[in-house]
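Our collaborator T.R. sent over the components below with a one-line note: 'Predict the complex.' Nothing else. No constraints on interfaces, no templates requested, no preferences about which chain binds where. So this is a plain run: every listed entity goes in together, and whatever single assembly comes back becomes the starting point for the next discussion.
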Amino acid sequence: MAPALNIDAIPLDIDLTDDAALDEFLDFGDIEEQYAVHVADQFDTILVIDGVPVVDEGKKEKLFTVIRKQFGKEGVHVKDQPHGFMMPMDAATGKSKGFVFVDFATPADADKALKHLQYFKFDKSHTFFLNKFADVEKYAAVPDQWDEERALGKAPEYVERGFLRDWLLDAGARDQIAVFNKTAVSVMWGNKANGPDVIHERENWTEGYIAWSPRGSYLASVHRMGIALWGGAAMDRLMRFHHPGVRFLDFSPKESYLVTFSPEPLPMPTNPAQPWGPESAGHHVIIWDIRTGHILRSFALTAEEIATKNVPWPLFKWSFDEAYFARIVGNAKLAVYEAPGMGLLDKKSIPIPGITEFEWMPYTPDEDEAAAKDGGKKKQQQNKRVQAPPYTIAYFVPQTGPDQPAQLALMSLPNKQVYRSKQVFFGLSAKIHFQSQGDYLLFKVDRTNRSGKASFVSLEVFRLREKDYPADSVEVKEIMVAFGWEPHGNRFAMITTSDVVSADLDLKAVLAGAPGKMTTHIYQVEAAVEKKGASVVPGGVKLVKAMDRKAVNALYWSPKGRYIVFAGLRNLQGVLEFYDVDATAGEANTATVTTSVNGKTVTSTKEVDPVQLLAATEHHGSSDVAWDPTGRYVMSSVTMWAKGMDNGVMLFDVRGTMLYKHSREQLKQALWRPRPPTLLPKHKQAKVRKNIKQYARDFEIEDATASSALSAAELEERRRLFDAWIQFRSRALLAIEAEDEIVTVLDN
Amino acid sequence: MTTGDSAPQLPLPSVHANKNGTYTHTLYKLDDQGRKVQVKRILRIGRDMEVSKRAIEERKKWAKFGAAKHHGPGPDTETTRVDTELPLRLSTNPQQLDAMEPAAEEASRKLKDTAIKCRYCGGPHWSKECPSKDIIQSLQEATGLGGPGGDDAPSGTPGLGAGPSGSGRYVPPSLRDGTGAPRPGMEMGRRMDDTYAVRIANLPEDTTDADLIELARPFGHVVRSYLAKYDDGTCKGFAFVNFATMDMAERAIAKLHGYGYANLILTCEHSKPREPKPM
Amino acid sequence: MRPIVCQGHTRPLTRVRYNRDGDLMFSAGKDAKFNVWSSATGELIGSYDGHTGVVWDIDVDANTTRTMSGSADSSARLWDARSGKCLYTWTTASPVRSVAFTPEADLALIVTDKKMGQPCTAIIVEIKDNVADIPEAPLNIFLPEPELTPATIARWGPEHTIYMGHENGTVSCWDAMSGERIASKKIHSGVVTDLQFSEDGTYFITSSKDMSAKILDLKLHVIKNFQTERPVNSACICPVKEHVILGGGQDASQVTTTTAKVGKFESRFYHKILQQEFGRVRGHFGPINTVAVHPDGTSFTSGGEEGLIRLHHFDPDYFRFKLDPRDP
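Returned assembly:
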């Protein structure tokens, strides 16, 4: 930038080669500004070096020269004399004070010196300590007292989060239901009768949808700019997670982490409201720490996933204790990460070419039987039951070539050892279902026959509590519509349909098809039994009952097992059938029946059907059925997506008796609030079961008083009405002539 | 406790019905001297029960007249029948009355499974305690048919088209009172006495015999089916299906009446003998 | 409960009534039929044949010796209850809407409709044991004022007073002998459809298309109000328990998309003192036009638009039910 030139001001007789003369007329202001050296900068070249040998005036110069030379060797240049060194002298002793101010040629030299010459060993008893001159000021200003607030800033106010498990303290042990209808979300108690009690109801609580966390502590609401979590007794907003355009969310099993997905890639962060760093730009998935609200890590999707917009959700599957989470990458690798570190296990993914499905095994450590002091008839040989390793992943690799059959495998982590596998010929795809306790595992494999023309399904059932994890295979020639393991039990149920399998089959049409074409099955998985002396009775999968000509397309086991509801949702009229699959529990499976045949009495043993229909009822247009977390109630909902009118929920008890109906216009979601696992140890649970009769009596009394309870105001009003009526009647009757009249004087 | 009218602390009045039809009206007041008195008034409001009873007995001897002139003793099936079990739904909470409907039908569905069943009406009580025993017995005498008065309490459709043949069994035209005219579409050759017929209506045009059997088969054994057609084979919209047992017929009615079939809502009811319909 | 269905009418029912002793139940319909049934078994005892138009109202005297009917054929008839023979016919200038015997059955009230150019008229006639002695001229005729709108129902009150319900919801009270209006008040906001007295005659219940029924005292003060969401066509007061029964309904409003499996029209039970609904019974396939309760409170009858009469004998549950511990 050329200096500004005021041509007119220059006298004509000036010598243009005389810079000094020109200087008078040239305005160097802008350049000066640009290159002005700030006062502070001046000290950027000066360091204070401590630990310098103490010398007197005479040796001073020599010392300087040595230092200069040595620094020069390191490539650091000290300014030339006389300003290079400045050593203050102590007037009293006549010697230096042990430190020197060194002015380096450039600030870069000073920085270099600071970096590389810190703790420079000048000689065997002197080590240089270097500090920036400017810092001296700073360090001198450090107060003697540590003032945290001044140093770190004001600490944020402690906000009480409230007791997250507050709802569990309800005296009536009721469960909560969250309902999203129209634009409002309500949280209410599910009562036994007469409809629910609404506790919280807010308009526009969510913009997208709501979801409960797996242990019920939080209610998540989806908004345009992120997720909000609500909880505590007053359902306050506890945390916000800023993820623009978020669509899906997933909680980790123990509610420590939140995974969010947005189809919009994250932009570069430009303001503090965006909590992610520049390394997250372009990512779609974020994992958050729920308690602090901080981002732990963000993840990118594979190119294929982005291109096809096909993202399986939940993208990451968590191990039972949140120690690991994993996902399949590109059908070739299984990426297992550790939490909370968020790094890949052993820093690399596990290569499993062709992998399409995987699931973590649910795991609950067997309780120490020795802890069960009461109820003492524990069999000691059952102390150590076989159990699969805790971090087990089951995965499936489909048939890739004529010599590579499909693989069903169980791998344990972190040693990545495949400890059990099975080959299945012509297996094309599979779904993996673990039983709730991790006792059994089922692969539902879609297979074809050798030529590839006919398709069928085979169920590969592994028993994970027996030595060597034996497996059984059951062939199913029909199309599977629904499947479910009995929680805590050894049974599974499925719904199939016998409509002809053809390549052009439209499954939707089949599912919504004419009534009476579905078959429901209940199977039992039995362990091998060793009988004394006799040979081992092999275990296996046994069909308990099959019922055809049903109009159902979904099944729901009670979370405690034993009871199941088959439902015909959406097009199938809302049929609900309640079954007890263990109706003969505790009793013999056979019953003696006495009949008279031709006048003679004949006794015969009859197999008593353990599967009994408790009730066949319906909730017209039902689109969803859900058990409450305790297995006491079943809620059937008609959402606005299924039917335009008659939206609402209906509550049933275990036996299928309808308790009440609650209408909600434009119902979108109705969700039970999950419960955390009970804290009662097993032996205490057994004790409760033993004393159930006692408890039942007390509850009956409570119920009786509750149902007839009216508020004090209502009772008062009733009394008033009765009295007023009596008065009215009495007055009116006075008008009628009496046949007879008796007057008696009353004594006080 | 103030009464509003008189001085405080007087007890409330009361009205009490007596056995002979009079009422005792008791009230309390202060007499001229300010003393509390109880006044009992006997009022004749109701009727004299003795006189009433005698009159009722007399009227039992009345002969039938007018439209009932030719009726025999007891209820005539043409005019009187006992309907299916129908609860008077009682609740202390008015909201529950709206929601109680499915429960009521549920209850009648469950009647099938209860151990105690009345011979006459099928209700969940002992036969000797049947409230409708008299009526049904006289109905049975009148029609000359024995047997239970119709298993009218099946899978939940009270009041649905159990036609004037109140006993519930299919009565062939020849045995019925009144007209002996053949019902539409029935061949007289084949005896269908022991089967239970239902009439399905509002069927779409393109329904075929096979469709009809397909529709009816889930409910049980179809003894006979008849689809009313025009000459060119187009379905006239109604059909008759005979089932082997009443249970099957009732199940079919329960499921098919109101069933959405090819965009039409079907009706399904017991097939009635031909007579002027009450509606 | 297993209701008895009485099929004796081919058109909608207009009135059902019990006699004083309760053993007989009378019904009238738009098919011009007037029938009598056994209230215990529901069997048809007989019919009073002769009218040629809708029979709007019927009555039976206290001793069940004579019955009376009023019809749209502009006549009111007196019948021998036992034989069905028509004893006397009064011809009126316009259709008859209401007929009623006095408790002594020495007088009868006939109220005609405003039609065919004729005003609504109340006619008091004498009844004699020997029909030949019945004078031709009525004892009294008076016209309720036009601004009250035509009367839809009229009943005797105590001491020869007459209580009427009108089309615009007014309830009025008259002295029968002088024809003077004692009182009138706008009670309902819609047509008054029925008016029934209590057993002791000290209060009565009115029902209206304004979806409510009310209990009024003799001075036309509203004592109780029973609210529903459907027009109420008829209401009666149970003589023993503190209940009232309402019948009504509206065709269009009963349409739902759920499968209509059974007659959805219901009779509704309300607690008379607490005004709260506590019971319902379904069964009718059309709106309920008329309800009546047995004088002992052991049964009730409802007549529907579909032409069916349903006779209900109460279960023990009904008698045991207490909405409030103070219930008798």
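Summary for T.R.: Confidence is low (pLDDT under 50) at residues 369-382, 501-506 of chain A.
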